[in-house]
Amino acid sequence: IDETGAFYSTRSILQILKQTKNTIAKGIVRDFPRYETRGFMLDIARKPFTMDYLKETTKLMSWYKMNDFQVHLNDNEFWFHDEYENWQDGYAAFRLESETFPEITAKDLFYTKKEFGEFIDNSELYGVNIIPEIDVPAHSLAFTKAFPELRQGDGEKADHLDVRNPETFKFVDALFNEYIGGENPVFRDQDFHIGTDEYKGDNEGFRMFTNNYLDFVRDKGRTPRLWGSLSQINGQPSVSGEGATMNLWNLWWADPVAMMNKGFDIVNTDDSNLYIVPRASYYEDYLDTKSLYENWEPNTFSGNYSYKIPAGHPQLKGGMFALWNDLIGAKANGISELDTFDRIMPAVQVLSEKMWSTDNEKSFNEFKEVADEVGTAPNTNPRYEVESVGETLIDYDFNNGSENEMVDNSGNNYNATGSNVEVIDGEDGKAISFKGESSFVDTPVENKGPNYTATFKVKKDGNGDFSEQILSESKNGSLKACQKDTGKVGFSREFYDFSFNYQLPEDQWVELTFVGEMTKTSLYVNGQLIDTISEVSEHEKVGTFVLPLDKIGSETNSFKGAIDDVQVKNIAEKPIDPTLIPQSEMTATATSEHTAAGNEGYASYAIDGNENTIWHTDWAGVTFPQNITLNLGGEHTINKFTYLPRQSGDNGKIEQYELQVSTDGETFTKVAEGTWNIDKSLKTINFDPVKATHVRLVANDAVGNFVSAAELNVHKVTEEIPEVGGKVAITAPTEVKVNEKVNVELGINEIKNISPYASDFTITYDPEVFDYNEVTSKIEGVLVTGKKVEEGKIRVLASSLGGDGLPQGTNFINLGLTAKAISEESVITVDIAQVGDENGNVHEIEKGSTKIAVKENSIPDPGVKPNKVADLKGSEITSNSIKLTWTAPTNTEVSEYIIYKDSKEIARVNGTEYLVEDLKANTLYGFKIVAVGVNDEISRPFAKNIRTSK
């Protein structure tokens, strides 16, 4: 019995059980592959991957019975000679420990020889052959940087080993021997790939070099592998392919029939169909799996599948797709391990099917349904999913439990424990104080992949320290309260450090919300979108971030401050833009569209909410102008249009445009025109408001005689609800004596758009300082009644007895009080202020307050530092303003008060109230007030967060 065959049979049985929910039909199954080599190549040189990731990839391949995993161990930045004055500044890496040449081993991430050998052994248990590749003589900058004397030349030849230099052969001999020589070689008995990819210059020297190392590997009792290049690098000497396997990657570099005639076995790795270069414009970002499923076979080559060799040819061993990470160094695009998996998974599913099964009886959609059910390999979690009983995954409010056990309120019982943290009073309930360095809350959840919404309420210590401070971490990455080098909120993962355009205030509670999606992560502060890290934003990098939850805080560089109300949800919960016309209400038609091929084609792809699908005109090419028309599903007043270009490749990106609108779908009027840069950024067209039922984007010129669009959106003008405005007028004497009667007068001012016929005020005062007497009307025609709700609180109703409504600018209520106790400053506040209009509608207006001193004590000696103010609050709150009131210090005279909003000074006043205007509705603001003594002594601040009304 063949061990690998027996293992594959368990894969088949498990796949059946996964689809049938643990039942299986009785009978005999004959399950065997059509091709012996079913492979995938991963460029781990230009993007570092953890060993855990390689093991997860092996399990995925094994699950789908893919058996060759080619690991590309060394490479370098492709454009190093153009990007840098010094060629040695280009990024290059060799991912293995080398005792012979320690200079060549990558500094950011490498594998020890022991762990790489164990990786090969472990993969064999899963039926997967690891094919190690050391790419020489080109793509060798990792070697020539260490040994410049071995390079072929400068410029683009600096990453070429000199194939005429005897020292080059000594170096490569020793390097190869370190891994394939000896009794227990690192590369075990695997096939060994010697590279030979994209060499330029000295054909004869290259062919001698290739012959030498094919024989070198053969002499070790192994099968050598190499990249096809001998049709382009032609000449003498002849290169024998007997006992060697060639990755046939490009018909120009190597012709399949010619290579088989030389004796090579070949593996179809055709770049036109099987190459992925994430987020590049010259190869696929994702393989066109639909086209591959319906058209590709291992014996077909070229983009239109027109070049074919006999399907049963004994030298055609199978196929392999490849993922290259070209965009690093100066062109680094931020691709993560999860982004890579997202590209590998569908490719593995389709190619395994094409190289194992004998027919395609299922349609592509039927195949996809089965593939989705089969899913990921058992005991793997490549998308970092977390089990949860509901939408909320974690919910720590820290109000229950202690430092030793913090209760999860989500229902998942993901309770946590603390280390060097302290439960303290928070803004509302309890919070956790983090001490910096090693200070953390240990949770049972390690990571959460996109999609997620994570909220942390935080208050940074007021120490002026903005060095690196971590909010949460795992071995996958860290969420930063203060990112190193910038001091801003950010995150780090896989050797990338990202910073949002936001720095935490000090000594102030703010609510941070992180919304994680594939390709982007957004930061909201107190509910307001601050920044998004994505390729489309100014950051220009893929912003995928796996949320680390293993520890809130850190074992090494913890946040210094307090954290409260940590909540993580299983969805990307984003505020809805009220101006956006839902794409679901729209339909799209175009002058040309390609019959859907994978993720591109139909006009509807431009309004499907998916940035990875695109509308694309017919691949045969078009003449300009071309257009796409959106039926808005009804009439709207619109004033903004956005165009998101395709995010991979440049074909079809619009350069010259017109925007037209119509109210009948027949006659269109131009509202804007212009030109756009050819890049990935979101394009926005603003124009004067206009009624429309249809919007047409006209392309007068675009890249490559095609037109494409990833996403189109239209924004409407929302109806403005007339503002009533208005505020309470309240006046009183500034100073009275004990036992003196006090008249507090009230009225209304600045109300617009309605006629107020009634008012309803709730007034609070200090019952230790004043006694309530009565309320009366000050003018004829206004009825006033009053009722004591409780000690210190009076409700006062007023109504007009005539047809003109309540007067504005004239006080019509008199509240009678009697002073009974000394007070430096006692505040009388209207806590609730409403008016009613002629239609019976009730409207909130701005509240008010006044202060009265009752027989003040003598003023203490100046020069004493004032105590901090007390009782800071929003006494009157509207959707766009907050009236701040506070109680003055009593220990000394105060010359003025300094008012801060969100850590910025906004005013200096002498009294104990201030109206903050021009605010946004339903937004949380942080206020702080300090008292200034007569000799400029500054009190400690009093801080408070206050939210405007909706």
Automatic annotation (TrEMBL):
Family: Belongs to the glycosyl hydrolase 20 family.
Active-site residue list: E198
Protein name (database record): Family 20 glycosylhydrolase
Record-level Gene Ontology MF annotations: beta-N-acetylhexosaminidase activity; carbohydrate binding
GO BP terms: polysaccharide catabolic process
Domain (F5/8 type C) ranges: 568-717
Keywords: Glycosidase, Hydrolase
Source organism of this protein record: Clostridium tarantellae
Tree of life domain: Bacteria
Pfam families referenced in this protein's UniProt entry, alphabetically: Cohesin, F5_F8_type_C, fn3, Glyco_hydro_20, Laminin_G_3
Source organism phylogeny: Bacteria, Bacillati, Bacillota, Clostridia, Eubacteriales
InterPro entries: Beta_hexosaminidase_sua/sub (IPR025705), CBM2/CBM3_carb-bd_dom_sf (IPR008965), Cohesin_dom (IPR002102), ConA-like_dom_sf (IPR013320), FA58C (IPR000421), FN3_dom (IPR003961), FN3_sf (IPR036116), Galactose-bd-like_sf (IPR008979)
Domain Fibronectin type-III intervals: 868-950
